[in-house]
Each structure stands twice: as C-alpha cells, then as structure tokens.
Design brief:
heterodimer; A: alpha+beta; 2 domains; 4-stranded antiparallel β-sheet; globular; B: alpha/beta; Elongation Factor Tu (Ef-tu), domain 3; Rossmann fold; 6-stranded antiparallel β-sheet
Chain lengths: ~350, ~280
C-alpha cells in the first residue's frame, strides 16, 4: 500500500502541484482552517473541519458565464469557456464528497450545466477518513459515515495512530493521482486507525415523513425565530446550489455572472412587482429545511444534507440543522401530529 | 446544435447565453406596459402558447417575460412588458431597430392538445392578459378545433386595459363571447364595472366540457377559481400560469422552486389540481 507520513502532506501537495494539479487543501487562513488553493510553504491542517466546503471549487461563489463587448449601442458576444484547471481536492471530508451526488444531479437533471461539468471532470476527489469529530458533526444521521467513500477517487486513511496516511486509490482518476505523486509516497504496510464514532441523532426518514405532512405547523415560527437571514449557512453548505444571474457592465463590456444566492434572503423570491411568495423569515427557513429533507428526497431520491455541520458552526445566531431535525424527529414520536 | 455552434465550442450552446433579436415594433400600451414585436437574428424561435423567455438588456440584466403572441401568428414573437424593475425599466426607451438578447423559450406552455374539442373560458386580469393572449390568439386562429370560446378580461382602470383594439375585435366576433370589466371606471367608460368574478353571472358554462384558463394577480386567481369551481368545472380543467422570480430558466438556480417543483421547467402552466398542493404557489 501507498503511505505518506502525516507531517509530509505538504510534500505530497508539492509533488501534485509539480505534476500539474491545482491543489486544494485545508490550510490556515486568518485564524481558521479553510479549503483553498495550496501554495508552497502553507501547512496543511487536518485537525478541524474547514469552514467552507469543497463545493467552492466546482460551483464557485461567482463565475463569468457570458461576456459581451460594448461599443456605443452595439455589442458583440465573446466566447466564454469554463475556468476548469486540473484540480485535486486533497484531505477534504467524506461529507464534501457525499455532496457531489446531489450537485451532479441538479446540474444535469435536465439541461447540462457546462460550467459545472467542466470543473467536475477536472477534479480528483481525495477525502480523508475522519478520526475525530466535533459536536456539530452528524453525517451518520443522514446516510453518511466518517469513512464513507461515495464520490471519492481516492481515500486518505489515517494510520498507525495518526502518524501516517494510507492513500488508497478507488477510481482511474485516483490511480492517475497516485502515479503523479510518485516518490512523495512510500510503499509499505500500516494499520488504518478506526474512524470516529458519531452517534445517530435523528431518524432522517421520520423527518422527511413529518415534513410531508407539516408545511403548516406551530413548530416553524419557533424553529426559525433566531434566523437573521444572513445566508452564511447556505454559503458554507456543501449541497446548497441556488444561484443568481447578474449582469455587470462597464462602458466597454458586459459580463454575465452566476453568483451564489440563498433562499434565506428576503429578495430571493421577491417579484419586481412587489409580491413575495415567501414573505417572512419563517417561510424562508422552512423552505431551507423542506428543500433539503423533503423536496430533494421527493424529486431526486437523495437527502439534501450530508451532515457536515458547517451551517451550525458559522451561524451567528446559534441555529443548528441537526438540532432542528432532532426536534422534528421528536415530534414524530408524539401523537397526534399537526395535520396540514 | 448547428455546425457553427460546435465550432464555437460548448459555451455557444450554453443555456445561459442569449441569442440576438431585433425589435421590429414597439408600442407604449399603457403608462407602465410596453409592447414589443421581435425578430430573431438567427433561427426563429419555436415556441408554444404559455411559454416564456429571458429578455436581456445588455449591460443591465435579464428578466423572465411571457410570450404574448401565438406561434400561429408567424415567426415573430411578441412581449408585453411592465416597467417595474431595472431591466424592464430600461426597456421603456427601447424602440424598433434596437437589439435585445433572448434565451428560451422556457417552461411547459398550455396543453393545447388536451383542450382540443373543449369549450374554453378565459379569465384574464391585468397583466395576466399577456400570457393568456398567447393562447387566445392560438384558439381563435384554430377556431374549429375548440368548442365555445368565452373571454373575460378585467383591469383596474380603463386606461390600464391591455390590447384594447384587439379586445374590440374579439367583441365583434360571432364565434366568441368577450366581456370586459374595470374596477374603477372613468367618465368615458360604458362597459361593465366591478371585479372580474362578477362577469361569471353573465356567461353560461357547461362544466362537463369547459377548460377554464385563469391568469391574473393572486387575489383575482383565488376568487376566479372559486367561481369556476362553483360552476362545476373540475380542478384538473382549471388552468393557470404562475408568476415567479425566475432566473436560470433551466431548473437549477432555485428561485422559482415551490416544493419539489421548478416552475420554470414543470410550469409555469399548472392545473388547479396541481396548484392547490403547491403551498406558496399563489
């Protein structure tokens, strides 16, 4: 098996960078661990779940999808190609990789999104098995696991008490990555460390079932009262995929941008005429929960949450998706339930 | 995809990139609504009544707009646009000869096949007349394919009524019954006064063979549906077109999502049977 010492991940990153990969890895940035493009000299931090998710590198916060030269009243379209360099997502988490099933589905269920697909094809996904978790982690409640391989091209498995990693290829892309790593990896034997145990906090099927009956429930105002509508949860979420399309222009050119958006924002559903079908934060927060745990399961037979806990870690009001789901699951054990 | 599209690369076929259209006629219908007739610079747009397009003002942005013409009218498409936002506000100054970007058509459109042979009752309030006109024109152009045709049109005030000359032509037709009402008449108004639902008393509906197409502001829709139901029209033959703040048009951006439905792909045309299950739908 292929091994690398735990303190030599940067050597692996350097080897992959030399082999032509853009290396994305968890590095310290302004006091937090963030997934970002690795540069020579940056230490790779595997001890904390990064604040952002790997989605940033498949579906970036802002992306140019159209461009026109302006000349007085005239304009000429210019060709826009996706910016999709060969990339490795190194030491991301299984909950990042698990999100790819949903992103792949949304961006391809009908029309194909060339921009997403170009980046997706250029990406090699190398999650790290989690041997530690914090109080916000709940992947096991939504069908995931700290050692899940869904969406992964290769796995980094901590071994020998965290002193080294086993790099195990799972796909052709994974094999190609191991070849590119070359001498940064050593051949040898090691004993994989056990993944962290994460207790299940709620029955996700019970949550989905309750949601299907409880669009109207007294619980919604109580669950949503703290929400500030800031959208941070959506931006940190590995599966949130809503976006806005905006044109920005100078005198010379106009660009069309695909920008992250969030159903938590009051403007998200506001019509130009003034009507807003989701007029308050309760309706918007309900949509966030419903979308992940009812609408996505109904439409795509997937769960719209991978249990990464990032939303709760970034929430300025202390809200927690796992806590909301646990409260809903508790409701299902009570009788009678609210009928819609 | 044409050969040139392939030569230009994948982005040329991107659903996010508009095609060019030239305005061949523009008319300020009311203080806020402007009418445009467009000609695509490349291939004409193949569309169905009830579909919509994304209209781009280059350098400003894009808005989702219903097509108000019928494919039976020929290759040009017509739009009636209310100036309420950045893009639609900018369009106030657009005249014949100016160019726009068009994406689409998007959405399902009206199921004209299912309506064949049926009586059709149109109930259109305010700007709702724009998407409805697409189907009215279609039905009138293929008149022999449908049973009795009744058109109820309403506006808040006489000077807000859209397509006034065309409505006058419909009123003259012997093969369709057209009734118009306004909520607040001016001194020259000689027609019906009151909300559109009052017109139901003046029409005969055979519920066994009627499709009711109801498009208008949310409050009008709710009460018009009650009238149609009271007349015995079944829920699956009450048809409406939903308005949403659509962005991508291709079922991804999430703006128009209601429950598991993307209005831009699965709609905007729904039956009342479907809409009543879509909470937040209206």
């Amino acid at each position: 098996m292929k091994l690398i010492d735990a303190n030599k991940l940067t050597a692996l990153a350097a080897a992959l960078a030399r082999a032509g990969y853009r290396v994305v890895a968890p590095v310290e940035d302004s006091g937090v661990v963030r997934l970002k493009e690795w540069a020579e000299g940056a230490a790779i931090r595997t001890g904390a779940v990064p604040v952002n998710s790997a989605k940033d590198f498949l579906f970036p916060p802002s992306e140019i999808i159209g461009r026109w030269d302006l000349d007085g009243d005239d304009f000429m379209p210019r060709d826009v190609q996706p910016d999709a360099p060969k990339t490795v997502l190194l030491a991301v988490r299984p909950c990042d990789a698990a999100a790819l099933a949903l992103l792949d589905t949304v961006f391809n269920w009908d029309y194909k999104d060339d921009f997403y697909n170009a980046r997706r094809q250029a990406v090699t996904v190398v999650p790290m098995v989690c041997t530690a978790a914090d109080e916000q982690c709940f992947c096991t409640s939504v069908g995931g696991a700290p050692d899940a391989t869904a969406g992964a091209d290769a796995m980094l498995r901590p071994a020998d008490g965290g002193t080294r990693f086993i790099l195990e290829p799972l796909t052709d892309k994974g094999n190609a990555l191991l070849d590119a790593a070359g001498l940064a990896l050593a051949e040898g034997e090691a004993a994989a460390d056990p993944p962290v145990e994460i207790a299940r906090r709620f029955d996700v099927e019970a949550v989905t079932e309750w949601l299907s009956r409880n669009f109207e429930s007294d619980l919604w105002p109580a669950l949503s009262l703290a929400c500030l509508g800031c959208g941070a949860c959506a931006y940190a979420c590995p599966t949130c995929h809503c976006f806005d399309i905006q044109d920005e222009a100078t005198r010379r050119e106009s660009v069309r941008l695909k920008n992250w958006d969030s159903c938590g924002f009051g403007l998200f559903t506001l019509h130009a005429g003034g009507h807003n079908p989701r007029p308050d934060q309760t309706a918007r927060w309900r949509n966030r929960v419903m979308h992940k745990f009812s609408y996505i399961p109904e439409r795509f037979a997937l769960v719209g949450c991978t249990g990464c806990g990032r939303c709760a870690r970034v929430c300025g009001a202390g809200m927690s998706m796992s806590e909301v789901c646990r409260l809903i699951a508790d409701e299902t054990k009570k009788a009678p339930t609210h009928e819609s | 995809m044409t050969q040139t599209d392939i030569e230009k690369g994948a982005a040329a076929a991107s659903p996010y990139v508009p095609k060019m259209a030239r305005i061949v006629a523009a008319d300020q219908m009311t203080e806020t609504e402007r009418f445009f007739r467009l000609e695509m610079e490349g291939e004409p747009l193949a569309y169905e009544p009830g579909q919509f397009v994304g209209v781009t003002v280059f350098g400003v942005g894009e808005s989702p707009i219903s097509i108000c013409s019928s494919p039976t009218q020929g290759e040009r498409i017509e739009l009636t646009i209310r100036s309420v936002g950045l893009v639609t506000g900018a369009l106030r100054t657009f005249e014949a000869g100016d160019r726009l970007g068009i994406r689409g058509p998007f959405g399902n459109g009206f199921d004209t096949g299912a309506m064949k042979g049926q009586d059709v009752l149109f109930v259109a309030g305010g700007l709702g007349l724009a998407p409805t006109r697409s189907l009215i024109r279609y039905v009138l152009d293929k008149r022999e394919d449908f049973g009795k045709v009744t058109i109820l049109a309403g506006a808040r005030e006489p000077n807000l009524l859209l397509f006034r000359e065309e409505i006058a032509e419909w009123v003259e037709r012997s093969d369709a019954d057209t009734l118009v009402t306004v909520n607040q008449p001016d001194k020259d108004w000689k027609g019906n006064v009151g909300v559109i639902t009052r017109l139901f008393k003046q029409v005969e509906i055979d519920p066994a063979r009627t499709c009711a197409v109801i498009v208008g502001p949310p409050v009008m829709f709710k009460f018009a549906v009650l009238e149609a139901l009271a007349a015995g029209v079944p829920e699956h033959r009450i048809i409406c077109s939903l308005e949403r703040h659509m962005k991508c048009g291709v079922g991804k951006c999430g703006h128009c999502q209601i429950r598991g439905v993307y209005v831009c792909r699965d709609g905007p045309v729904f039956t009342y049977e479907q809409v009543k299950r879509l909470r937040e739908g209206i």
